[in-house]
Specification:
By secondary structure, the protein is an alpha+beta fold. The chain has twelve helices and 22 strands. Helix content is about 25%, strand content about 25%. Bound molecules: fe (ii) ion.
Length: about 425
């Protein structure tokens, strides 16, 4: 079904309910998944209810300060032990039969424990189910259910260079970032892979956003562009991740935020510091990327993070989070809040363009006749290769390519076919297909 050598991929993997059930097992119980941001659980007892694949999980900080991720399901009868989106609590008390768990997941309360259970059962064996591995990467919290998965750093591999830039401050330094508000959540009637593929570096769909460019939606306020994208370069990795970069050679000024004097001044200041902080690499800016399987990020304008949580073969829950520099002036944060909302999220015009494509493409691919024909991913077949400045398999403008989706689906097929992490890690060395 996935023939990346020829650039043909069966529509079944986007519409088939049985394959979706297999994905939940083979991909979402094994891969590292983004769960939330450390700033969402600053204090002991803070929690944020998230998802891993189709399942609800609780991200929380216990009273010793340690971060945990638990399955949000009571050990007694499976009830959601936490029914709120976020908050702070001393303990998670199940609303069904009142089994109660500490924020470190241990079971501490069972109704009529002394009388009803003779001999008494061992409560330490009936705590909340906890993930096998957890990583805090520059404030982002990741987890996997698989104890045999490699470390998160190894999993991220060479995509780390782009992802680091997406998470750090605009000037490329280590000043902190913070969330604007909380998470926007909404549902799209499409397969989750449409979303992951789009942000892995599909620059060809820019044509969909023409109306947005024409109404001067971008922060520059100029007609005909959301941003000065520089020269576009895509990089793909055998781990399934894909990044789209903008390269601005020798550029001294940035005009993207010219719409208001405050933002214009702040971003010019950031750009000058970035040139100092990052030297020659300052002009190589990651724009968007997808970390396999379903976490996508925008690293520049806007700077956001999106998880496309799968809920069905034809339904995806979108969770988008927005970042700003902690030290940015208030009026800059306010400008960005409004800009982000009109760019991304359910009300964002650029996101609406994308959702319309994914929605109609999904619906028009589900038919009996439609399913007989594969999708076409042949652009730039065999072109990508090594690059002087960037790791991975690289293709630059003006060559048109779909190499990043090909790498993504090759990795998807690896997970679906291969039973062990040994095989999955070995498969990464087959990486020169372009
Ligand atoms: Fe788009």
């Amino acid at each position: 079904m996935v023939n990346t050598a020829e650039g043909e991929i069966s529509r079944e993997i986007f519409v088939n309910d049985e394959l979706f059930e297999q994905e939940k097992e083979r991909i979402f119980t094994r891969a590292w998944l983004y769960v939330g941001h450390e700033s969402q659980i600053k204090k002991p007892g803070d929690f944020f209810v998230s998802k891993m694949g189709a399942e609800s999980v609780i991200l929380t900080r216990d009273f010793a300060g340690k971060i945990h991720v638990f399955l949000n399901s009571c050990a007694h009868r499976g009830m959601r032990v936490c029914r709120y989106d976020e908050g702070n609590t001393r303990a998670f008390r199940c609303p069904y039969h009142a089994w109660t768990y500490k924020t470190d997941g241990t079971l501490i309360g069972v109704q009529d424990y002394d009388n009803a259970y003779q001999p008494p059962f061992d409560k330490s064996e009936w705590g909340l189910v906890e993930v096998a591995q957890l990583a805090n990467y520059m404030g982002t919290i990741w987890a996997t259910w698989d104890k045999n998965a490699p470390s998160f750093e190894e999993y991220l591999g060479e995509a780390t260079i782009a992802f680091d830039q997406g998470l750090c401050a605009w000037d490329g330094g280590d000043g902190g970032t913070e969330l604007l508000g909380s998470v926007q959540k909404w549902i799209v009637p499409c397969n989750w892979k449409f979303v992951a593929e789009n942000f892995a570096g599909d620059w060809l769909h820019g044509v969909s956003h023409r109306s947005v460019d024409m109404i001067r939606l971008g922060p520059s306020g100029e007609v005909g562009r959301r941003d000065d994208f520089g020269r576009l370069v895509v990089t793909a990795y055998p781990d399934g991740h894909g990044i789209l970069y903008s390269v601005y050679p020798n550029k001294k000024t940035r005009t993207e935020y010219a719409m208001s004097p405050e933002t214009s001044e702040y971003f010019q200041y950031c750009w000058e510091r970035r040139l100092k902080n990052l030297g020659e690499t300052a002009g190589t800016c990651p724009l968007v990327g997808t970390i396999f399987p379903n976490m996508s990020f925008h690293a520049q304008q806007p700077r956001t993070l999106l998880v496309s949580h799968p809920t069905g073969a034809n339904e995806t829950e979108m969770w988008r989070t927005y970042f700003v520099d902690k030290e940015a002036p208030e009026d800059v944060k306010q400008f960005l809040r409004e800009y982000y909302m009109r760019y991304s999220g359910p009300a964002g015009m650029t996101e609406q363009d994308d959702m319309e494509n994914w929605n109609y493409a999904s619906a028009a691919s589900r038919g009996t006749i439609a399913r007989r024909r594969p999708y076409h991913y042949k652009a730039g077949l065999g072109v990508g290769g090594p690059h002087d400045d960037l790791p991975g398999v690289v293709t630059e403008q003006p060559i048109t390519t779909e190499q990043n989706p090909r790498f993504f689906y090759k990795r998807w097929a690896d997970y679906m076919d291969m039973d062990s992490w040994g095989e999955l890690l070995d498969a990464r060395t087959v990486s020169s297909q372009g």
